[in-house]
Amino acid sequence: MGIKNHIDLIYPELSYKIVGCAFVAYNQLGNGHSEKIYQRALAEELGIRRIEFKEQVYVPLLYKGRSIGKIFLDFLVEDKIVVEIKKGNKYSRRHIEQVLQYIKSTDLRLAILINFGSSEVSFKRIVNIH
Question: What is the pLDDT of residue 91?
Answer without folding.
Answer: 84
